Amino acid sequence: MPHWLQLMLESLPTLLWAALIFTVPLTLLSFAFGLVLGLVVALVRLFGPKPLVAVVRFYVWIFRGTPLLVQLFLIFYGLPSIGILLDAFPAALIGFTLNIGAYSSEIIRAVIGSVPKGQWEAAYSIGMTWAQAMRRTILPQAGRVAVPPLSNTFISLVKDTSLAAAITVPEMFQAAQRIVATTYEPLILYVEAAALYLIMSSVLSALQARLEKRLNRYGGFLEARA
After folding, report:
1. N or C: which end of the chain has fewer CB within 10 A?
2. DSSP code at position 137
């Protein structure tokens, strides 16, 4: 068996375990929390009072205008200087959540704004409150439009979690770095890590395509009934 193949096979369980224990949970939690944060920020931008709108616009401006790696360093290495100490995983989770929240808020704000005003008027005409109209009429329509860009954001997040290695989170990429430190075979291990990220991204892209196809079929069915 070639040396490179043997090394890949020996390191594969370690990389997969790191992905299962750290990469996947970090991705799912960050995206879930970021999506909730993004929805709140988008609603404030669209319907909130001006002072609060200014605050969330500043937040979005900061986190969309600075590199994610710098944000992680500020949270993990910078906050201790003012007495705020965080472990690596919570620091990464906070950093990714705030970053995803800023980007997803713009997506959600755009898709909610794209829903025709007639839908609001129709909801109000049958006695719905603002909250009921949002939950039953606006968000279902906006959600179908938001799936492709939010799916792309999720796939990007899977790859971006490798940046957590820079703040000592023992996720998949740092697991590869640790193996490299003992084997001195960076090319083989980094190619293997890249291949695993590629496989995960490809699977997610295929699932995204199927979901979009299903949603388009459902949307066409609703339009035909209308």
Report:
1. C
2. I
Q: What element of type H or E holds 100?
A: helix 88-114
How many angstroms separate the CA atoms of 78 and 110, rounded? 33
DSSP state of 82: G
Q: What is the pLDDT along the chain (226 residues), one digit of tens a residue?
A: 899 999 999 999 999 999 999 999 999 999 999 999 999 999 999 999 999 999 999 999 999 999 999 999 999 999 999 999 999 999 999 999 999 999 999 999 999 999 998 999 999 999 999 999 999 989 988 988 899 999 999 999 999 999 999 999 999 999 999 999 999 999 999 999 999 999 999 999 999 999 888 877 755 544 444 4
Q: Which domain holds residue 8?
A: 3-225
Question: In the Cβ-directed half-sphere of 188, how many Cα atoms lie within 13 Å?
Answer: 18
Q: Which of 70, 46, 66 is nearest to 56 (CA)?
A: 46
User: What global pTM score does this model have?
Assistant: 0.91
| Helices marked H in the chain | 3-18, 24-47, 50-65, 68-73, 88-114, 117-125, 130-133, 139-160, 172-183, 186-225
Q: Structurally, how many domains does the chain consist of?
A: 1
Measured between alpha carbons, how far is residue 30 from residues 17, 34, 38 in Å?
19, 6, 12
Cα separation, 47 vs 56, whole angstroms: 12
Round to whole Å and give the CA distance between 61 and 128.
34
> For position 106, which CATH number holds?
1.10.3720.10
